Structure formats: structure tokens, C-alpha cells
Automatic annotation (TrEMBL):
CDD domains: START_1. Residues 1-23 form the signal peptide. InterPro entries: START-like_dom_sf, START_dom_prot, START_lipid-bd_dom, START_lipid_transfer. It comes from Pseudomonas vanderleydeniana. Gene3D superfamilies: 3.30.530.20. GO terms for molecular function: lipid binding. This is START domain-containing protein. Keywords: Signal. PANTHER family: PHOSPHATIDYLCHOLINE TRANSFER PROTEIN, START DOMAIN-CONTAINING PROTEIN. Transmembrane segments: none annotated. GO terms for cellular component: cytoplasm. The keyword Nucleotide-binding does not apply. It comes from the Bacteria. Residues 24-204 form the START domain.
């Protein structure tokens, strides 16, 4: 399984890749344990886009493996209930993901197209985009139809990697404003904090 996402997260908050690229007025909203979460308003949307940034003491290859192992990825990705591979085609992967959001939000599902780009400097970028019509609707779940984002892993010195998790989505259905506001901070913060813990434990085990 060459490529995955993970991340993913699910989710929340977006209008497409073009809008994601255009939303660059980021403001620091929360900082904790070395992890920074930035938010920006999205024109025409009620939901903010988030960007979480953290330094993780692990190689890019370790983080890549933790994303491509979907069973493990769903455990560290905030609000993930299920994640499974639908198709892998070289640098492109399609993943099905369901969410488990706090009450009163109804569960969501989504199909994500994940495109992976490997940089000459050892960096890795995974671009996420919702492909809602890839699978028929599932009874009891609200399909997220608009989502775009990315995971970026940039190697630094001494085996450390700067990880960026960015997402913008329209969650579909009704989401209370207090829950939406909490999600855009908790999703990157919890995902990055948990990924860091798992990756750094893995790095210790892999050390001769």
C-alpha cells in the first residue's frame, strides 16, 4: 500500500483546492506542547480552515508508514471511526473514512482522493480532496462532499520532521457553531499530538 492519507481526519471545513490555496490570512489560534494551530476565514463559508504545525522527532519514512497503515492511522487521527483502502494506483489512493464526532453532530462519511508527492529534499506532501460520488451514499451517514487539505512532512536536522496538517471542509448537514469552532482547533491539535507520540515511540523501538 503505497500511499495513504491519514489524516485525514476528518474533518471538516472546505470548499476545494483553489479556495484552500487562496486562504492564506492565517492567525495563531492555539499553541500547546510545541504544536501551533492557525485558523483562517474562508470566503463564502461558515467554517474556518485550520493549519496545525508540529516538529516530530521521527524520520519522514516513519511518519509515512504510520499514515499508510490505515488501522493505526485511524487511531491517531481525530474523530476517525473507520478507515479503509478503496484503491491504490501509484501515487494516488482512494480511502473511505467515517467519523465519530461529539453529540449532537450526526456521523459523517467521506471518500478521499490522496495524491502523494515526494520532494528531492526528502519531503513528502499528501494532497487530500473529497470525491463524494466514488461510492453510493451509506444509510445513516451524512456524506461530506466538499473537502480539501494536505499533509506536509519536511525533514529537518537530527532526524526531526516538521509536519503540517491543513484542512478546509464543508461538513454538510447542521453543525452547531460551538462544535465547529472546537473542531478546527481539536482536530489538528489532537491528531498531531497523538501522531507525535506514536511516531516517537516507534523511533525509539527502531533505534539500534
Amino acid at each position: 500500500m503505497k500511499t495513504l492519507l491519514s489524516v485525514i481526519a476528518l474533518t471538516t471545513a472546505c470548499l476545494g483546492t483553489a479556495t484552500l490555496a487562496a486562504a492564506e490570512n492565517w492567525k495563531l489560534a492555539h499553541e500547546e506542547d510545541g504544536i501551533k494551530v492557525y485558523l483562517t476565514q474562508v470566503p463564502g463559508s461558515r467554517y474556518q480552515s485550520f493549519r496545525g504545525v508540529a516538529d516530530i522527532k521521527a524520520e519522514v519514512s516513519t511518519l509515512r508508514d504510520l499514515q499508510e497503515n490505515l488501522r493505526v492511522a485511524c487511531k491517531w487521527l481525530y474523530a476517525c471511526a473507520e478507515m479503509r483502502l478503496l484503491k491504490n494506483d501509484g501515487d494516488d489512493t482512494w480511502v473511505y473514512l467515517t467519523t465519530e464526532l461529539p453529540w449532537p453532530a450526526a456521523p459523517r462519511d467521506m471518500v478521499l482522493h490522496v495524491h502523494t508527492e515526494q520532494g528531492d529534499d526528502g519531503s513528502l506532501v499528501r494532497r487530500l480532496e473529497a470525491t463524494p460520488d466514488y461510492l453510493p451514499p451509506v444509510t445513516g451517514l451524512i456524506r461530506v462532499r466538499q473537502l480539501s487539505g494536505l499533509w506536509q512532512m519536511r525533514p529537518k536536522t537530527d532526524g526531526e520532521t516538521e509536519v503540517t496538517y491543513q484542512l478546509q471542509a464543508e461538513p454538510a448537514g447542521d453543525i452547531p457553531s460551538w462544535l465547529a469552532n472546537r473542531f478546527v482547533v481539536d482536530a489538528p491539535m489532537v491528531s498531531l499530538k497523538t501522531l507525535r507520540a506514536v511516531a516517537e515511540r516507534q523511533g525509539v523501538r527502531d533505534t539500534p
